[in-house]
Structure formats: structure tokens, C-alpha cells
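Morning. Coffee machine broken again, so started the prediction first thing and wrote up yesterday's gels while waiting. Chain of 106 residues, entered below exactly as on the submission form.
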Amino acid sequence: MPRGDKTKYTDKQARKADHIAEGYERRGVSETEAERRAWATVNKDDGGGKEPGGSGHGHNTGHPAAHKGGRIGAEASAHRSAADRSVSARKAAATRKRNAEHHASR
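Came back before lunch.
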């Protein structure tokens, strides 16, 4: 099988790669680089093509690429000051209190 041949990938894997590539392109990555990154992500997630004869066929993957998002999001909040977090916490507490009062009055 020549390099770049995608015949061992399922339709779902191809859709996943297209969706990932679209996200990269929206963020300004070139089309070829977005495609490369997308298929690399699918390979990381699924261990290769899932069709019979593909290296990922019949293996559970655990979806490692899908778990990366939480770490990326948490990094932003970790850089906020204590005062900023405190303001958010007070606002959230007020919202919970307001919602509780609203639901209790029914």
C-alpha cells in the first residue's frame, strides 16, 4: 500500500479527519498542513485504519487526542489572578442563589 493511501480508513475516520482539518483551516492553517495534522490526529486517536488489514483494526484506543482539550482549557484559567477568580466565584454563587429562589417559589 503506497504512502498516503486511505483505503483502510473507515468513513467515520474520514469524516473525523475532515472535521478536524476544517477547524485548523478556520484558525488560519494552510489546507495541506491542516490535512496532515488531521490525519495525524486520527492516527493518534485510532491507531491507524480500522478496516481489516489496517493497523488499528480490532484494537480499543481510549481516544487520547480527545482528552487533550481539558488541559488546554485549564491552562487559561490557571493564568488568571486570584481576584479574577474570586469575582467569578461570587457571580456564580449569586446566580445559584437566584436560581434556587426562583425554583423554590414554584
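The chain is about 60% helix and 0% strand. Going to sketch it on the whiteboard this afternoon.
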